């Protein structure tokens, strides 16, 4: 991706929304872009695992909402699944772990921070639902662009 979010904001200011402050990239890719796949979780990542492990992620970014609860929902294993299935990135409204191991996996991973603990009891999630956090409405099929300056979302693809 040779496109920069700052340039996209300048060129398409009426079409893009900027993710609120506080998100950092913990993954091994400095940039990502792609069609959004949404998933809402309740602390546990059980429904995120098959999405990343079994679905073709080519040209896609997964947006995960766990209401910023202090449990890690993405770590080394899920990042390996994402990489194996060609996902460009993951955005987590929550926390991640295994940051030493995931920093070399070439998938972008934006999150609020780190937490060594995961939620053990299995809970259910919903894929393809509307999400809202950090000042943005995320819809399945929207487009996301991320780099070292931040993350932006557009209802339609604005680059080739």
Explain this structure to me?
This protein has 160 residues and is α/β, with parallel strands linked by helices. It has one domain: Ribonuclease E inhibitor RraA/RraA-like (Glucose Oxidase, domain 1, 3-Layer(bba) Sandwich), CATH 3.50.30.40. The protein has helices at 5-11, 48-54, 76-84, 99-102; strands at residues 16-18, 24-25, 32-40, 60-65, 72-74, 89-93, 95-96, 108-111, 113-114, 126-127, 131-133, 136-138, 143-147, 150-154. Strands 1, 2, 3, 4, 6, 8, 10, 13 and 14 form a 9-stranded mixed beta sheet that branches. A hairpin with a 2-residue loop joins strand 13 (143-147) and strand 14 (150-154). The longest helix has 9 residues, at 76-84. The relative contact order is 0.30.
Walk me through the topology.
Elements: H1 5-11, E1 16-18, E2 24-25, E3 32-40, H2 48-54, E4 60-65, E5 72-74, H3 76-84, E6 89-93, E7 95-96, H4 99-102, E8 108-111, E9 113-114, E10 126-127, E11 131-133, E12 136-138, E13 143-147, E14 150-154
Parallel strand pairs: 3-4, 4-6, 5-7, 6-8, 7-9
Antiparallel strand pairs: 1-14, 2-8, 3-10, 3-13, 11-12, 13-14
Helix pairs in contact: 2-3
The topology string of helices and strands comes to: HEEEHEEHEEHEEEEEEE
| Measured distance between first and last alpha carbons | 10 Å
* Largest sheet composition: 9 strands, mixed
Helix/strand-derived category reads alpha/beta
3D shape: globular
The H-level CATH homologous superfamily, spelled out, is Ribonuclease E inhibitor RraA/RraA-like
Strand element count: 14
CATH class type? Alpha Beta
CATH topology description = Glucose Oxidase, domain 1
As a whole number of angstroms, the C-alpha radius of gyration is: 14 Å
Secondary structure: helix percent: 10-25%
Q: Tally the helices: what do you get?
A: 4
């Amino acid at each position: 991706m040779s496109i920069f979010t700052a340039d996209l904001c300048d060129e398409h200011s009426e079409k893009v929304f900027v993710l609120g402050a506080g998100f950092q990239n913990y993954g091994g890719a400095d940039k990502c872009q792609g069609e959004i796949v949404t998933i809402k979780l309740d602390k546990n990542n059980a429904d995120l695992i098959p999405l990343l492990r079994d679905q073709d992620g080519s040209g896609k970014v997964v947006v995960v909402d766990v209401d910023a609860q202090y449990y890690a929902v993405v770590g080394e294993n899920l990042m390996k699944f994402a990489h194996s299935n060609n996902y460009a990135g993951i955005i987590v409204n929550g926390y991640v772990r295994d940051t030493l191991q995931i920093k070399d996996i070439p998938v972008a991973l934006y999150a609020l921070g780190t937490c060594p603990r995961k939620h053990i009891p299995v809970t259910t999630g919903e894929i393809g639902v509307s999400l809202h956090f950090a000042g943005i409405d995320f819809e399945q099929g929207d487009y996301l662009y991320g780099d070292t300056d931040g993350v932006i979302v557009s209802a339609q693809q604005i680059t080739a």
